[in-house]
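DM from R.C. (forwarded with permission)

"hey, sorry to bug you on a friday — could you get me a structure for this? deadline for the figure draft is monday and I only need the backbone to look sensible"
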Amino acid sequence: MPNDTPLSAIYPPDYESRWIDTPAALQEALLRLEKTDWLAVDTEFIRGTTFYPAPALLQLYDRQCVYLVDMLKITDWSGVSRLFESRDILKVVHACSEDLELFNCVGLSQPCGLIDTQVANALLDGELNEGLQSLVRQNLGIELEKHATRSDWTQRPLTDKQIQYAQEDVVVLWPLYQKLAEALRLSGKYEIALEEGEAMRLAAAGVQDMGRYYLKLRGGWRLRKGAQQLLAKLAAWREQEARGRDIPRKKICPDDELIAIAQRRPRTLGQLTEITSIQGAGLRRYGAELVGMVREHMKADGDEPETGFEMIRPPIPREYQDLVKKVKKLTQKLAREHRINVGLLASRGLLEEFVYWHIQGGAGTQPQLLQGWRGRICSAPLERWLQDDRSVPPRQSP
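My reply, with the result:
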């Protein structure tokens, strides 16, 4: 049964804790950390009304010492980046997507050699989005104190409870990792956990490509080719503006209005105000630039996109919806056989990506279901099923 004793009183009994808020202190810590082969990583930050999260604290733990790095004071992250880039050091995290986003914000390299305990749990057929508190309770019988989660991490000094919370979030990852790693190795999934960690690292590093952000605007699939090319320019402009001014995208121009501009192509400020909510100061700041982009696009005769331009993927046609359901049923069976959470193996997005690739004649990049560890599980069964099931609609010509 879980107990109420703080983790710091149970495991380990003698770890150090150091507050790092000067370049000299950070350099001293890095000299020690570069000798380790295992590192727990976590961050604390605040989500506000800005584009970027406000960084506050970076926690690093090497099984001997917790380093609490003050992100309000440290500005040179080159040494930590080198630490993160080392493939000789295993980095262990929990639910790290927002941590990786924060690393992008401050210019930190994405960590190589990554294992996420939340992913590890799903690979062992646990819940897909299991929180750290619940995972620790189930595996270690320890009750973590989580009251400081939503506290103000930018205040200085931090409270004793905040310090304890920050320490325990990384200290607990060592015994948790040991238990999960043993189960992963026994089930032959340890390398899969590393492979998935590498995929997360690459995905986080790739979000900086502003030129591809239009592909996230799924409502734009109805636009003809030239309008989608204009949408790509508008979305890249908005992304640069949002990041540069640190304000949410929707404060500049919501997705649906960006799509409307690409579709209706306003060439005057009056036409722009008819189809968007941009008024007053926003119109003075953005209006001329938006209208200018539309005019430039039309002057260049943008009805024909550049060679290799990627169109927004449309929804799966109605006649193929049953195929999505059948592929889902097959992947559910495979997930049960391999004792992996089906949401990790084959999410709805991955299922639709596979079906769309199939109905396009198998042209272009292979879907994720056929790549890497997912491909080793799903590729052969899916291919056999597609060949044997006469109810599967035929592929279109590529």
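R.C.: lifesaver. The radius of gyration is 25 Å.
me: no worries. The chain has three domains: 7-205, 210-300, 318-388.
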